[in-house]
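Hello, quick one for you while I still have it in my head. A protein chain has come my way and I'm curious about its shape. Can you walk me through what the tokens say about the fold? No rush at all, and the record is pasted right below.
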Amino acid sequence: MALFIIGALGLILNRKNILITLMSIELMLLAINLNFTIFSIYLNDIAGYIFVLFILTIAAAESAIGLAILTIYYRLKNTIRIDKIRNIKG
């Protein structure tokens, strides 16, 4: 639960850097995976492990796509600040 709270605080308190926002989302997803794994062991059930695999797949895709978009945007604008990105229309 502490990892999830740290990730949520990083998401809420950070308003300038998009990389920290992505890392906070990843931390929250990994905290959820840890809880699923612990409860799967405790309940002796395989469903938690299956959910962990799905969440890890989604987290990997989110990271890859997000970082690719940021790399392209940085090459075009030479900045990755959130307040500059919000001004994009269309």
